[in-house]
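[job 0412] stage=complex_fold ligand=alpha-D-galactopyranose status=START
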Amino acid sequence: MQPDKRTQTILDGFDANFEGKATHLAIAPGRVNLIGEHTDYNDGFVLPVALDRDVRVLFRPRDDNQVRLYALEFDSWADFSLGNSERNKKQLWPNYVQGVGLELAALGIQLQGFEGIVSGNVPRGSGLSSSAALEIAAAKAFLTAANQIHALTGPQLARAAQKAENEFVGVNCGIMDQFISTLGEDGHALLIDCRTLGYRRVPFPEGVSLVIGNTKASRSLAGSAYNERRAQCEDGVRRLKEVLPGIGALRDVSRAELEAHRSLLSHTVYRRCRHVISENDRVQTTVAALEQDDFEEAGRLMDASHASLRDDYEVSSEALDKMVESMRSHPGCLGARLTGAGFGGCAVALVRAGAEKDVRETVQESYARAMNLWPEIYISAPSSGARVLPL
Ligand code: GLA
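[job 0412] stage=complex_fold status=DONE, emitting C-alpha coordinates
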Protein backbone atom coordinates (compact mmCIF):
# COMPACT_ATOMS: atom_id res chain seq x y z
CA MET A 1 0.00 0.00 0.00
CA GLN A 2 1.22 3.50 -0.85
CA PRO A 3 1.99 5.43 2.36
CA ASP A 4 0.29 8.82 2.79
CA LYS A 5 2.38 11.97 2.49
CA ARG A 6 3.01 12.30 6.18
CA THR A 7 4.07 8.68 6.64
CA GLN A 8 6.33 9.04 3.59
CA THR A 9 8.09 12.02 5.22
CA ILE A 10 8.67 9.92 8.34
CA LEU A 11 9.94 6.97 6.26
CA ASP A 12 12.30 9.36 4.46
CA GLY A 13 13.45 10.66 7.84
CA PHE A 14 14.30 7.10 8.84
CA ASP A 15 16.24 6.45 5.62
CA ALA A 16 18.21 9.66 6.09
CA ASN A 17 19.24 8.80 9.64
CA PHE A 18 19.47 5.02 9.89
CA GLU A 19 20.79 2.17 7.81
CA GLY A 20 18.24 -0.44 6.76
CA LYS A 21 14.48 -0.40 7.42
CA ALA A 22 12.09 0.21 10.28
CA THR A 23 9.78 -2.61 11.32
CA HIS A 24 6.82 -0.85 12.96
CA LEU A 25 4.88 2.39 13.12
CA ALA A 26 3.28 3.30 16.47
CA ILE A 27 0.54 5.92 16.30
CA ALA A 28 -1.16 7.68 19.24
CA PRO A 29 -3.66 10.53 18.88
CA GLY A 30 -4.15 13.83 20.67
CA ARG A 31 -7.57 14.49 22.15
CA VAL A 32 -10.26 17.05 22.66
CA ASN A 33 -12.52 16.84 25.67
CA LEU A 34 -16.23 17.42 24.95
CA ILE A 35 -17.11 17.96 28.59
CA GLY A 36 -15.90 16.99 32.08
CA GLU A 37 -13.09 19.42 32.77
CA HIS A 38 -10.96 19.28 35.92
CA THR A 39 -13.00 16.29 37.03
CA ASP A 40 -10.49 13.50 36.30
CA TYR A 41 -8.30 14.16 39.34
CA ASN A 42 -11.45 14.34 41.46
CA ASP A 43 -12.34 10.71 40.61
CA GLY A 44 -15.05 12.05 38.30
CA PHE A 45 -16.29 11.62 34.74
CA VAL A 46 -14.94 12.88 31.42
CA LEU A 47 -16.12 12.64 27.81
CA PRO A 48 -13.17 13.07 25.44
CA VAL A 49 -12.67 12.05 21.80
CA ALA A 50 -9.42 11.10 20.07
CA LEU A 51 -8.37 13.47 17.26
CA ASP A 52 -7.21 12.69 13.75
CA ARG A 53 -3.90 14.31 14.72
CA ASP A 54 -1.28 12.13 16.32
CA VAL A 55 2.30 11.41 17.34
CA ARG A 56 4.07 8.63 15.44
CA VAL A 57 7.13 6.60 16.28
CA LEU A 58 8.63 4.73 13.33
CA PHE A 59 11.06 2.23 14.79
CA ARG A 60 12.77 -1.13 14.91
CA PRO A 61 13.96 -3.07 17.94
CA ARG A 62 17.65 -3.07 18.82
CA ASP A 63 19.40 -6.02 20.36
CA ASP A 64 20.80 -3.96 23.21
CA ASN A 65 19.51 -1.63 25.94
CA GLN A 66 19.73 1.64 24.04
CA VAL A 67 16.89 3.87 22.89
CA ARG A 68 17.91 6.16 20.06
CA LEU A 69 15.37 8.52 18.57
CA TYR A 70 15.38 11.45 16.20
CA ALA A 71 12.51 13.93 16.46
CA LEU A 72 11.77 15.34 13.01
CA GLU A 73 10.02 18.54 14.04
CA PHE A 74 12.57 19.37 16.74
CA ASP A 75 15.52 18.31 14.59
CA SER A 76 16.97 16.71 17.71
CA TRP A 77 18.34 13.37 18.89
CA ALA A 78 17.72 11.54 22.13
CA ASP A 79 19.86 8.66 23.25
CA PHE A 80 19.48 6.87 26.57
CA SER A 81 19.91 3.44 28.12
CA LEU A 82 17.00 1.55 29.61
CA GLY A 83 17.03 1.99 33.36
CA ASN A 84 18.70 5.42 33.18
CA SER A 85 16.67 7.58 35.56
CA GLU A 86 18.49 10.84 35.00
CA ARG A 87 16.32 13.51 33.41
CA ASN A 88 17.35 15.16 30.17
CA LYS A 89 17.84 18.77 31.21
CA LYS A 90 18.51 20.14 27.75
CA GLN A 91 15.37 18.91 26.01
CA LEU A 92 11.96 18.10 27.36
CA TRP A 93 10.58 15.64 24.79
CA PRO A 94 12.93 12.70 25.49
CA ASN A 95 11.80 12.70 29.12
CA TYR A 96 8.31 11.58 28.13
CA VAL A 97 9.79 8.56 26.38
CA GLN A 98 12.35 7.79 29.06
CA GLY A 99 9.77 8.16 31.86
CA VAL A 100 7.41 5.74 30.16
CA GLY A 101 10.25 3.21 29.81
CA LEU A 102 11.00 3.47 33.51
CA GLU A 103 7.35 2.97 34.46
CA LEU A 104 6.97 -0.07 32.21
CA ALA A 105 10.14 -1.57 33.67
CA ALA A 106 8.83 -0.87 37.18
CA LEU A 107 5.79 -2.99 36.30
CA GLY A 108 8.15 -5.89 35.69
CA ILE A 109 8.15 -5.77 31.90
CA GLN A 110 11.46 -6.88 30.43
CA LEU A 111 12.24 -4.12 27.91
CA GLN A 112 14.40 -4.05 24.84
CA GLY A 113 16.06 -1.06 23.14
CA PHE A 114 14.68 0.42 19.92
CA GLU A 115 15.52 3.18 17.49
CA GLY A 116 13.74 5.38 15.02
CA ILE A 117 11.92 8.59 14.23
CA VAL A 118 9.41 10.58 16.28
CA SER A 119 7.04 12.92 14.49
CA GLY A 120 3.78 14.59 15.43
CA ASN A 121 1.10 16.93 14.12
CA VAL A 122 -0.78 17.52 17.37
CA PRO A 123 -0.30 21.25 18.04
CA ARG A 124 2.14 21.48 20.96
CA GLY A 125 1.36 23.32 24.17
CA SER A 126 -2.20 23.95 23.01
CA GLY A 127 -4.19 21.75 25.35
CA LEU A 128 -4.74 18.94 22.82
CA SER A 129 -2.48 16.48 24.67
CA SER A 130 0.55 16.22 22.43
CA SER A 131 2.48 15.02 25.50
CA ALA A 132 0.09 12.18 26.24
CA ALA A 133 0.19 11.20 22.56
CA LEU A 134 3.99 11.03 22.70
CA GLU A 135 3.86 8.95 25.89
CA ILE A 136 1.39 6.48 24.47
CA ALA A 137 3.17 6.14 21.11
CA ALA A 138 6.41 5.55 23.05
CA ALA A 139 4.70 2.99 25.32
CA LYS A 140 3.45 1.09 22.27
CA ALA A 141 6.95 1.16 20.77
CA PHE A 142 8.52 -0.11 24.01
CA LEU A 143 6.00 -2.94 24.32
CA THR A 144 6.30 -3.95 20.67
CA ALA A 145 10.10 -3.90 20.71
CA ALA A 146 9.98 -6.11 23.82
CA ASN A 147 7.45 -8.43 22.21
CA GLN A 148 5.08 -7.63 25.10
CA ILE A 149 2.29 -5.78 23.34
CA HIS A 150 -0.36 -7.62 25.36
CA ALA A 151 1.37 -7.28 28.72
CA LEU A 152 -0.95 -4.47 29.87
CA THR A 153 -4.62 -3.63 29.37
CA GLY A 154 -5.43 -0.23 27.86
CA PRO A 155 -6.29 1.33 31.24
CA GLN A 156 -3.09 -0.09 32.78
CA LEU A 157 -1.02 1.36 29.96
CA ALA A 158 -2.71 4.75 30.35
CA ARG A 159 -2.03 4.64 34.10
CA ALA A 160 1.65 3.85 33.53
CA ALA A 161 2.01 6.79 31.11
CA GLN A 162 0.21 9.12 33.53
CA LYS A 163 2.57 8.02 36.29
CA ALA A 164 5.55 8.73 34.05
CA GLU A 165 4.26 12.25 33.46
CA ASN A 166 3.51 12.79 37.17
CA GLU A 167 6.73 11.39 38.53
CA PHE A 168 9.40 11.65 35.86
CA VAL A 169 8.35 14.70 33.83
CA GLY A 170 6.90 16.35 36.95
CA VAL A 171 3.46 17.38 35.65
CA ASN A 172 0.65 16.47 38.01
CA CYS A 173 -1.97 15.64 35.36
CA GLY A 174 -4.97 13.31 35.72
CA ILE A 175 -5.66 10.16 33.67
CA MET A 176 -7.94 11.52 30.93
CA ASP A 177 -5.42 12.35 28.20
CA GLN A 178 -3.47 9.09 28.31
CA PHE A 179 -6.68 7.10 28.57
CA ILE A 180 -8.37 8.53 25.49
CA SER A 181 -5.14 8.43 23.48
CA THR A 182 -4.90 4.72 24.26
CA LEU A 183 -8.55 3.69 23.98
CA GLY A 184 -10.25 6.23 21.70
CA GLU A 185 -12.58 4.83 19.04
CA ASP A 186 -13.37 6.01 15.56
CA GLY A 187 -16.75 7.77 15.53
CA HIS A 188 -17.12 7.66 19.32
CA ALA A 189 -16.53 9.66 22.44
CA LEU A 190 -15.56 7.74 25.59
CA LEU A 191 -17.39 8.22 28.86
CA ILE A 192 -14.63 7.45 31.36
CA ASP A 193 -15.08 6.87 35.06
CA CYS A 194 -11.76 8.19 36.34
CA ARG A 195 -12.15 6.33 39.63
CA THR A 196 -12.73 2.80 38.41
CA LEU A 197 -11.21 3.36 34.94
CA GLY A 198 -14.34 1.73 33.54
CA TYR A 199 -15.51 3.30 30.30
CA ARG A 200 -18.31 3.27 27.76
CA ARG A 201 -18.25 4.16 24.07
CA VAL A 202 -20.74 6.87 23.17
CA PRO A 203 -21.49 7.06 19.43
CA PHE A 204 -20.84 10.54 18.13
CA PRO A 205 -24.08 11.57 16.39
CA GLU A 206 -24.10 12.19 12.65
CA GLY A 207 -25.96 15.47 12.85
CA VAL A 208 -23.15 17.35 14.59
CA SER A 209 -19.41 18.03 14.22
CA LEU A 210 -16.59 19.42 16.30
CA VAL A 211 -14.69 22.59 15.55
CA ILE A 212 -11.62 23.33 17.65
CA GLY A 213 -10.24 26.84 17.96
CA ASN A 214 -6.64 27.33 19.04
CA THR A 215 -6.35 30.76 20.68
CA LYS A 216 -2.57 30.76 20.12
CA ALA A 217 -2.38 32.67 23.39
CA SER A 218 0.38 31.71 25.83
CA ARG A 219 -0.44 29.33 28.70
CA SER A 220 2.28 30.49 31.07
CA LEU A 221 0.15 30.16 34.20
CA ALA A 222 -0.99 26.67 33.41
CA GLY A 223 1.37 24.57 35.57
CA SER A 224 1.20 26.42 38.88
CA ALA A 225 -2.50 27.28 38.68
CA TYR A 226 -3.37 23.67 37.76
CA ASN A 227 -1.63 22.42 40.90
CA GLU A 228 -3.32 25.14 42.94
CA ARG A 229 -6.76 24.01 41.70
CA ARG A 230 -5.94 20.42 42.61
CA ALA A 231 -4.90 21.50 46.10
CA GLN A 232 -8.13 23.50 46.54
CA CYS A 233 -10.21 20.45 45.63
CA GLU A 234 -8.24 18.36 48.14
CA ASP A 235 -8.80 21.02 50.77
CA GLY A 236 -12.54 20.88 50.03
CA VAL A 237 -12.59 17.09 50.47
CA ARG A 238 -10.62 17.30 53.72
CA ARG A 239 -13.06 19.78 55.24
CA LEU A 240 -16.21 18.07 53.96
CA LYS A 241 -14.93 14.78 55.37
CA GLU A 242 -15.45 16.16 58.87
CA VAL A 243 -19.21 15.91 58.30
CA LEU A 244 -19.28 13.39 55.46
CA PRO A 245 -16.75 10.77 56.61
CA GLY A 246 -17.67 8.36 53.81
CA ILE A 247 -16.39 10.54 50.97
CA GLY A 248 -13.12 9.84 49.19
CA ALA A 249 -13.23 12.57 46.55
CA LEU A 250 -15.50 15.35 45.25
CA ARG A 251 -17.07 12.69 43.09
CA ASP A 252 -18.86 11.44 46.20
CA VAL A 253 -20.41 14.77 47.18
CA SER A 254 -23.86 15.82 45.96
CA ARG A 255 -24.81 19.37 45.21
CA ALA A 256 -27.23 19.35 48.18
CA GLU A 257 -24.48 18.16 50.52
CA LEU A 258 -22.13 20.86 49.28
CA GLU A 259 -24.78 23.53 49.90
CA ALA A 260 -25.60 22.12 53.35
CA HIS A 261 -21.96 22.31 54.47
CA ARG A 262 -20.92 25.38 52.58
CA SER A 263 -19.90 27.20 55.75
CA LEU A 264 -17.01 24.76 56.27
CA LEU A 265 -15.33 26.03 53.11
CA SER A 266 -13.73 29.28 52.07
CA HIS A 267 -15.66 31.05 49.32
CA THR A 268 -12.98 30.11 46.76
CA VAL A 269 -12.88 26.44 47.73
CA TYR A 270 -16.68 26.35 47.72
CA ARG A 271 -16.75 27.61 44.14
CA ARG A 272 -14.06 25.15 43.03
CA CYS A 273 -16.10 22.31 44.51
CA ARG A 274 -19.29 23.62 42.95
CA HIS A 275 -17.64 23.51 39.53
CA VAL A 276 -16.46 19.92 39.93
CA ILE A 277 -19.75 18.63 41.31
CA SER A 278 -21.90 20.38 38.71
CA GLU A 279 -19.50 19.38 35.90
CA ASN A 280 -19.80 15.70 36.82
CA ASP A 281 -23.58 16.02 36.47
CA ARG A 282 -23.20 17.80 33.14
CA VAL A 283 -21.11 14.95 31.75
CA GLN A 284 -23.88 12.44 32.47
CA THR A 285 -26.56 14.73 31.08
CA THR A 286 -24.52 15.39 27.94
CA VAL A 287 -24.20 11.67 27.27
CA ALA A 288 -27.98 11.30 27.56
CA ALA A 289 -28.52 14.31 25.28
CA LEU A 290 -26.14 12.96 22.60
CA GLU A 291 -27.77 9.55 22.77
CA GLN A 292 -31.16 11.15 22.14
CA ASP A 293 -29.86 13.41 19.35
CA ASP A 294 -30.81 16.38 21.52
CA PHE A 295 -28.07 18.61 20.19
CA GLU A 296 -29.48 21.85 21.58
CA GLU A 297 -29.31 20.41 25.08
CA ALA A 298 -25.75 19.12 24.53
CA GLY A 299 -24.77 22.61 23.32
CA ARG A 300 -26.39 24.27 26.33
CA LEU A 301 -24.46 21.98 28.66
CA MET A 302 -21.19 22.91 26.94
CA ASP A 303 -22.04 26.59 27.39
CA ALA A 304 -22.81 25.97 31.06
CA SER A 305 -19.51 24.12 31.47
CA HIS A 306 -17.63 27.11 30.09
CA ALA A 307 -19.43 29.50 32.42
CA SER A 308 -18.61 27.30 35.40
CA LEU A 309 -14.93 27.00 34.37
CA ARG A 310 -14.76 30.75 33.89
CA ASP A 311 -16.63 31.92 36.98
CA ASP A 312 -16.25 29.17 39.59
CA TYR A 313 -13.05 27.40 38.60
CA GLU A 314 -11.40 30.51 37.14
CA VAL A 315 -9.34 28.75 34.49
CA SER A 316 -10.51 30.69 31.45
CA SER A 317 -8.74 33.69 29.93
CA GLU A 318 -9.64 36.67 27.80
CA ALA A 319 -8.51 34.78 24.68
CA LEU A 320 -10.58 31.69 25.54
CA ASP A 321 -13.66 33.77 26.32
CA LYS A 322 -13.29 35.58 23.01
CA MET A 323 -12.80 32.32 21.16
CA VAL A 324 -15.95 30.86 22.71
CA GLU A 325 -17.86 34.06 21.95
CA SER A 326 -16.69 34.03 18.31
CA MET A 327 -17.76 30.41 17.95
CA ARG A 328 -21.18 31.07 19.42
CA SER A 329 -21.74 34.08 17.18
CA HIS A 330 -22.36 31.67 14.28
CA PRO A 331 -25.92 30.31 14.15
CA GLY A 332 -24.63 26.81 13.32
CA CYS A 333 -22.86 26.64 16.69
CA LEU A 334 -24.85 24.79 19.34
CA GLY A 335 -22.45 25.41 22.22
CA ALA A 336 -18.78 26.03 22.97
CA ARG A 337 -16.36 25.79 25.86
CA LEU A 338 -12.70 25.84 26.74
CA THR A 339 -11.17 22.37 26.58
CA GLY A 340 -8.23 20.92 28.51
CA ALA A 341 -6.65 22.63 31.48
CA GLY A 342 -7.51 26.18 30.37
CA PHE A 343 -5.61 29.50 30.77
CA GLY A 344 -5.05 29.50 27.00
CA GLY A 345 -4.91 26.72 24.45
CA CYS A 346 -8.11 25.62 22.74
CA ALA A 347 -11.88 25.85 22.84
CA VAL A 348 -14.23 23.29 21.29
CA ALA A 349 -17.57 23.97 19.63
CA LEU A 350 -20.40 21.58 18.86
CA VAL A 351 -21.76 22.65 15.48
CA ARG A 352 -24.44 21.40 13.12
CA ALA A 353 -23.00 19.04 10.51
CA GLY A 354 -22.33 21.02 7.36
CA ALA A 355 -21.66 24.29 9.19
CA GLU A 356 -18.01 23.50 10.09
CA LYS A 357 -16.33 25.54 7.38
CA ASP A 358 -18.61 28.53 7.84
CA VAL A 359 -18.00 28.48 11.56
CA ARG A 360 -14.27 28.32 10.89
CA GLU A 361 -14.40 31.41 8.69
CA THR A 362 -16.51 33.36 11.14
CA VAL A 363 -14.20 32.48 14.01
CA GLN A 364 -11.03 33.26 12.10
CA GLU A 365 -12.30 36.69 11.31
CA SER A 366 -13.99 37.71 14.52
CA TYR A 367 -11.40 36.23 16.88
CA ALA A 368 -8.52 37.82 14.95
CA ARG A 369 -10.29 41.17 15.07
CA ALA A 370 -11.02 40.94 18.80
CA MET A 371 -7.62 39.63 19.94
CA ASN A 372 -5.24 40.79 17.25
CA LEU A 373 -4.04 37.19 17.10
CA TRP A 374 -4.50 34.77 14.20
CA PRO A 375 -6.16 31.59 15.53
CA GLU A 376 -5.84 28.10 14.12
CA ILE A 377 -9.04 26.16 13.54
CA TYR A 378 -9.17 22.37 13.32
CA ILE A 379 -12.12 20.30 12.17
CA SER A 380 -11.68 16.78 13.44
CA ALA A 381 -13.90 13.72 13.55
CA PRO A 382 -13.62 11.41 16.58
CA SER A 383 -10.81 9.03 15.62
CA SER A 384 -9.09 5.82 16.71
CA GLY A 385 -6.87 5.39 19.72
CA ALA A 386 -3.29 4.14 19.69
CA ARG A 387 -2.20 1.32 17.41
CA VAL A 388 0.94 -0.28 16.01
CA LEU A 389 1.26 -1.12 12.32
CA PRO A 390 3.82 -3.72 11.28
CA LEU A 391 5.63 -2.57 8.12
C1 GLA B 1 -5.10 18.58 31.57
C2 GLA B 1 -4.73 17.31 32.33
C3 GLA B 1 -5.93 16.36 32.41
C4 GLA B 1 -7.16 17.10 32.95
C5 GLA B 1 -7.39 18.40 32.20
C6 GLA B 1 -8.51 19.23 32.79
O1 GLA B 1 -5.37 18.27 30.24
O2 GLA B 1 -3.67 16.65 31.69
O3 GLA B 1 -5.62 15.26 33.20
O4 GLA B 1 -7.04 17.32 34.33
O5 GLA B 1 -6.21 19.20 32.18
O6 GLA B 1 -9.72 18.58 32.63
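The chain has a mean pLDDT of 97.
[job 0412] exit 0
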